Amino acid sequence: MSLQRIVRVSLEHPTSAVCVAGVETVVDIYGSVPEGTEMFEVYGTPGVDIYVSPNMERGRERADTRRWRFDATLEIIVVMNSPSNDLNDSHVQISYHSSHKPLPLAYAVLYLTCVDISLDCDLNCEGRQDRTFVDKRQWVWGPRGYGGILLVNCDRDDPSCGVQDNCDEHVRCLQDLEDMSVMVLRTQGPAALFDDHKLVLHTSSYDAERAQVFHVCGPEDMCEAYRHVLGQDKVSYEVPRFHGDEERFFVEGLSFPDAGFTGLISFHVTLLDDSNEDFSASPIFTDTVVFRVAPWIMTPSTLLPLEVYVCRVRNNTCFVDAVAELARKAGCKLTICPQAENRNDRWIQDEMELGYVQAPHKTLPVVFDSPRNGELQDFPYKRILGPDFGYVTREPRDRSVSGLDSFGNLEVSPPVVANGKEYPLGRILIGGNLPGSSGRRVTQVVRDFLHAQKVQPPVELFVDWLAVGHVDEFLSFVPAPDGKGFRMLLASPGACFKLFQEKRKCGHGRALLFQGVVDDERVRTISINQVLSNKDLINYNKFVQSCIDWNREVLKRELGLAECDIIDIPQLFKTERKKAMAFFPDLVNMLVLGKHLGIPKPFGPIIDGRCCLEEKVRSLLEPLGLHCTFIDDFTPYHMLHGEVHCGTNVRRKPFSFKWWNMVP
């Protein structure tokens, strides 16, 4: 970006000016004109291109092609494309003429020193065949887009340091540099120019709160060489003149996009003329680069699993063993949070959501810590935050949260196309209330954060009818080999009643639910006949079905789904304090590890030696190439109003699609 650069010439003495390679300088020849001037000629030394612009309609012409009639509307433009070797080693000469005089009336000379200055970063423009016309002052989305990308450096590469890497003004270890983006200042021109000119790197106070810059001022293999020069309370930095033509800077993000912050950050370098001791330095040229802070991205259950998390508590040994076996089959790492750390809080899905951030040079997993703050509240920060594993959280100032702020109420769909728009990273799904109602909603700071990431636009579903109030209580996604590459599973009271009616017609009305539930006197068996004759249960599940059907239509519209993309999973609900809870273990609240599914064991009616609910689920999912494992979570989870998915968490492989290639 060039400032409006106008240089005035004088007849009394030669004028000197600094120009920047490739940047136009306007020469004002009208301030001092000999009397009787009717025409003028203008010439430059080799390497100086001079143009005259008569008017907007005619464009510009090379100045050395003819003598020009003197007209104050004419604009003389000078361009140099190569830096000077010495001060004032090029010049422009203007001669003033009269038709009544054979010789010029006077001459004016403008001596020029050209310097090449550029502030650059990785503009990430692989999709563009011609990079020369990229405007560094802009950040453009899409496969033909461009612009620098910053990671929020929210991991802790030095385990001995007590804070995240971007929470202080030091480079603690060289590995930390891998999370930063490189910015390069290149200068070419006579060294003597900088005896009375200076380069200043600067940003706005707003942007300084959201990113910071380190200047390499010594050997790059020493942490002490990285000087903190911009960020926090530092908004400008005079770049010292070392003996090279290139200065390297490392830039890190401090804040994720959020309410009031689009994610765009600008840095500028300005060449200042400081030659006059009586005046403040005057700007000659400014170059600018724009970065976008990489968004936090969620991963859907259809992506490849890498690591499974589960808590060990006093009564879930068999559950942990079953999850471990499923992780082994899926080829996943298993991390168990011991009871000493979880303090008997088993709801690890509610405590955190595992996602990632990505730049062309680095992908970094980042845990989003929920504001629920149960007994597991220290686990994400103390156990997951570390080298190459970042951390972010959002909490309301008044700390007022509801059950909807647990992250069982935060899911994301696989990639979809809806209403003609592509969502290559899927769409976030959060639960709330009906439009216009006054029920529970996710706290504003979390909603603001999720919306600000832009790349997975959230859809708010209706969950206030549920006692716990989480979207994972009635939906999940599993991979599929055909169609859109996935199926959405919805809990369905209607499908359950239909299944039980079929079994009763076949003479199995006396078959019992809850047979085989171990060590819990609170659970009584109930037959299919009793279920189908319970009018209160039937009527309540009609209400539940209407709530799920409302969400079904929202999901079909917002995710572009057809009925063939949805599988109805038999499920009944009961009421407690006018809110819904699973009547038997909630089958859609499952752990998805590739083709291996860990499904809550429903303890359904046993017919011909098999649970008819399990058999129905197998018949729906196994044709997709999925393997169903039913895990007994009845006592340690179901009786506490949660299931398998609530008690586990998964870190997954990032999308192959790069977020900057989409158009939000």
Automatic annotation (TrEMBL):
Keywords: Calcium, Cytoplasm, Hydrolase
E.C. number: 3.5.3.15
Top-level taxonomic group: Eukaryota
Molecular functions per Gene Ontology: calcium ion binding; identical protein binding; protein-arginine deiminase activity
Pfam families: PAD, PAD_M, PAD_N
Main location: cytoplasm
Subcellular location(s) of the protein: Cytoplasm
SUPFAM superfamilies: Cupredoxins, Pentein, Peptidylarginine deiminase Pad4, middle domain
Catalytic activity reported: L-arginyl-[protein] + H2O = L-citrullyl-[protein] + NH4(+)
Domain Protein-arginine deiminase C-terminal stretches: 284-661
Names of the cofactor(s): Ca(2+)
Annotated family: Belongs to the protein arginine deiminase family.
PANTHER family referenced in this protein's UniProt entry, alphabetically: PEPTIDYLARGININE DEIMINASE, PROTEIN-ARGININE DEIMINASE TYPE-3
Identification of the protein by name: Protein-arginine deiminase
Taxonomic lineage: Eukaryota, Metazoa, Chordata, Craniata, Vertebrata
